[in-house]
Request: fold
Amino acid sequence: VVDDEEGGVLFIPGASSFSSSSSSGYGYASIDKQRQRLPVYKYRNAILYLVETHSTTIIVGETGSGKTTQIPQYLIEAGWASGGRLIACTQPRRLAVQAVSSRVAQEMGVKLGDQVGYTIRFEDVTNQDETVLKFVTDGVLLREMMNDPLLTKYSVVMVDEAHERSISTDILLGLLKKIQKRRPELRLIIASATIEAKSMADFFRPRKKRREPENDVNGLKVEPAILSVEGRGFNVQINFAEEPVQDYVQAAVSTVLLIHERESTGDVLVFLTGQDDIDAAVHLFNEEIQNNRKHSSGLVVLPLYSGLPRADQELVFSPAPRGKRKVVISTNIAETSLTLEGIVYVVDSGFSKQRFYNPISDIENLVVAPISRASARQRAGRAGRVRPGKCYRLYTEEFFLNHMSNEGIPEIQRSNLVSCVIQLKALGIDNILGFDWPASPSPEAMIRALEVLYSLGILDDDAKLTSPTGFQVAEIPLDPMISKMIIASSQLGCSEEIITIAAALSVQSIWISGRGIQKESDEAKLRFAAAEGDHVTFLNVYKGFHQSRKSSQWCHKNFVNYHAMKKVLEVREQLRRIAQRIGLVLKSCESDMQVVKKAVIAGFFANACRLEPYSPDGMYKTLRGSEEVYIHPSSVLFRVNPKWVIFNSLVSTDRKYMRNVMTIDPSWLLEAAPHFYKLQQPNLLH
Ligand code: ADP
Ligand code: MG
Reply:
């Protein structure tokens, strides 16, 4: 049992013991001490014993108790990484992979990328000869299985953040269960922040055949072990909004200013939904700091979301300068994946961006939706790490009780399954409906996915991957529609352009936007705007960036996000390499945008829409499903409203908005996907 008193003494507020990332004042002993103070340390031997004796060990423990950073180190210390074997630890989020691996490398006193490394999509910081502990996204481990289906390099796989139930985590769990049948010596650790250990254990418990002995394959217990790490966690006082809040960004900013004015020292963590919200809040703070110095002096405001440059990530983890109060504005990444020391106040908007999929209309979109009560509790818990804290919920108690679900729904039950089906097919799992899922996806969604893959030419009549297209698509770590677009571009002679477009689609946004600079950024965008739409506009921006010799000043002047463009360059290089590896032809079409458009359509024909005649506000309907959608204000085609368009993705706020839109000639749809459109829309061209 962990002693609360002790915890209070050990975590000295303000003197955050984790400042060692940049300063060199800490010796190894000090880090050792810090490690021993984490709640998980008391369970070190128990954990190692369970892992030794059981195939699967489920570990539940409060966020910040040391599961992610400590358990992999215990495993190394106990010899699980000897003899050329590797340990993997998976995370659902890329940013978490980077942050925890760098923390662990630092604790072990090694350089990140040597003994400890990480791999996320398009970024591999490991060393074949040296790395023994690899932090990866669960998606990356799935990809590794394509070359090494039994994960033979690994002695232990720790699936972390299992409570998140991300789609890749669920697929991974299903596959690991299969692997264990063939490789009983592979140990699994499933770590999670909340108690749903029993259902996990049920999933991993082998179905008992009669008269089979209880346990033991090679002396190993097959019944999963469950261990619960008691956290410390101080009391957190909860405050609800009295009235429903109109604008949670504005409300969050006002609340932080009130806390700053009235409450004693301690950092603030604000939960908003995504980069756009967060940038807007940062902007409001900056305005406040400029206009009203008295209120806001002493505040250090920092954003935290995936895609944040490395240097900015490190700032978030370092303690605020003396006498200053740190305010971190985060997506739900800080809910359980990352622990920030020193947080005493939490401001919770009550929302997050969630994926929803409707198999009837085949529409998947990102929706800002209420979080679950379980998430709300987790968020509040972040305030009680160092001493008793306070949580300000920007919603009413009535909302909490009546409009928030108790638990979230696993992502696999609210996602489009196209990528998931390809991955399983590529791993040779043909009976996808019969696959052993921790939570079953809906058969409708599964059938939809098979249908789309068939019309993309990725699956054949027997629902097997086609050769070469299907296998090539499986090799490209992108959404299958984008992969298909790249493959088509090789045949059409415009792969250089399409790869640029694919890279630009893989970053959040290449533009700088936000409240207050809308007009300027819109004007800047017009300089690059192409009549064909956003895809060709990306090409114009890329060209300008290239001609400026990749200048950050040029980006600044044109409201282009420099970090995003650097990422585009990186992803582009990786995609070119993959394209060459799978035998695609790298070629530029110079200025022939017709072929570029055809390649985009080859991937995205299913997202075609037509402008509603006589619609005053630019309403479109999707060709299949007749969903009402609108062009997103960030698109260069916003207000232009061409008759026929296709889009890359949808986001919902008050309406469903299409992001990244391109004009099309409808006859090309029939050309690109005759089967798909003839069956669905016999009178398409009317
Ligand atoms: P859990 O996985 O159980 O939530 P972690 O292992 O992530 O816990 O965290 C254990 C401790 O390590 C926490 O006190 C946290 O503040 C610290 N820590 C984790 N990552 C970092 C980092 N990147 N920088 C500084 N401290 C960190
Ligand atoms: Mg963790």
Notes: The mean pLDDT is 89.
